[in-house]
Description:
The complex is a heterodimer.
Chain A: H1 5-34, H2 42-64, H3 84-108, E1 113-116, E2 122-124, H4 125-149, H5 160-185, H6 190-217, H7 224-228, E3 235-239, H8 247-250, H9 258-282, H10 285-309
Antiparallel strand pairs in A: 1-2
Chain B: E1 7-12, H1 21-31, E2 40-41, E3 49-50, E4 54-63, E5 66-75, E6 93-95, E7 102-104, H2 114-117, E8 125-127, E9 132-134, H3 140-143, H4 156-160, E10 166-170, H5 177-185, E11 201-203, H6 238-242
Parallel strand pairs in B: 1-11
Antiparallel strand pairs in B: 1-10, 2-3, 4-5, 6-7, 8-9
Amino acid sequence: MRPAFSVLFLTTLIGAGQGLLVALVAGQLFLVVGSGGITESGGFYAVGSALALVLLALGLLASFFHLANPQRAWRAATQWRTSWLSREVIALPAVMGMAVLYGGLHWLGWDMALMHFANGKSLDLTMAVGFVTVLACFALFLCTGMIYACVKFIREWASVWTVINYTLMGLASGFILAAAFAASSGAVVTGLFSGTALVLIIAALFGRAYSLWRNARIRPVSTLKGAIGAPHQNIRQVSQGFGGKSFNTTEFFHGASADTVRMLVVFFIAAGFIAPAALVLMGATALLWLAFAIQYVGLLAERWVFFAHGNHVQNLYYQRKA
Amino acid sequence: MANEKQLALVIDLNVCVGCHACVTSCKEWNTSGWAGPMPDQDPYGKDPNGVFFNRVQTFECGTFPNTETVHFPKSCLHCEDPPCVPVCPTGASYKRESDGIVLVDYDKCIGCKYCSWNCPYGAREFDEISGVMKKCTLCVDRIYDETLPADRRKPACVLACPSSARLFGDVKDPDSEVSKAIRDNGGYQLLPEAGTNPANHYLPRRKINANVHEDQLARADNPLSREAEPPKFGGPTIDDASQW
């Protein structure tokens, strides 16, 4: 498949935004449950949510560049009963709305206790809204992953690992950003964020490595025999019917050499996983920001390779010009 | 959703000569019709690109010297379970209940191309100029046009085919020309494992062999061979009885 840059930016930016929101809520829960009265200021969560909102909004903006008729984009919310793409179109603004609500309530300090527990702890309004925010984030991860995983004619994508990896990489990216942001704010949850980030980077690396291994071994289900229905063992295309280009020869082929793709695999493993893990381990504030930036570039390369590795069934019909 | 009626093409690969008349007539009719335009970019230049609803491809089967050439016209198969329809986020891609034709509503299409990812046949082609997805309509603007003579209410490709390799009709009607052709000539669907249940069918290449044995070539009791010695039998025969 041809990598669409709008989609590369969309998925990586919203992944980081969702990961950051999940990290903030996890940090709040950690402090509520685990500590003796230590809390972060409402401003910390509000600024963090604003940062996530900016990433989500940039992702949404990038997605419009994927559409040829963006003025009708509102229609894309109508078919949520059948289309994962439509569900994502609903889930993304929902997550943005929850980010506004979560950050806004923290900013305004509207934090009445909704429920008291026997151990003296309470469920506060912001925490409850935070839980809903996390649910919305995971719903969006599911929608984004399923957009690709439900395309059964690209076997490299049609796997539960597509959803798992999109989620893990988004979370890893968001937790690194959360760690950098917390370290800059001098928050006590910095250690929690960077530690979790490290675990998520390693988990995402294993998930992605597994999908690379799976894709390298994948056997096509469909062959030319079934594509044209000729009962022959040995079929070659002589002509695809035209000498120029068509949508079928541009949208479904990435056009880069196999060496370029291999080089980018090495690059994204180094920049998207190993380098950020090392930088997070070192732990200085500037290094955490650097880790996020390097990992973001690495994840862009990862997404490019994800597209390039996708081999569509229709390519059987477009093997030879003339 | 099973349609009562399902219009479709049946394409006889035994007859198709790969002349591309269906390709050009399709483009001619549809680029100025309801489904048009079908724009080209750089059509007379070095690197032409353009929208077609129908392509004729050529494949070589077998190993030399025992090869055969298959010309293979390819267009939207108007699947009975079209995977391109439910994935459309706007509802622009739809299948008509009345006759099973799969169409795109250009006024709703946002040009996300997601439907084309979900078609295993590569039947949809994106129009970069209008920014909407386009595809074969089975000439929906021809086949119901009552201003045309009844025998001309067929898709442009079917009318253009000089060898009558393309048949058009309702595959759900067991008495239709297409249903009979599928039944009698081993009509099949493309990529059955895709689970799309295509309405268009293809008829296979067929070689007609008469199995003639050597002893059938010469007739032992040919009545014209009177000069030959009549067979000798020991006793009276039926011939003896009938010749008095």
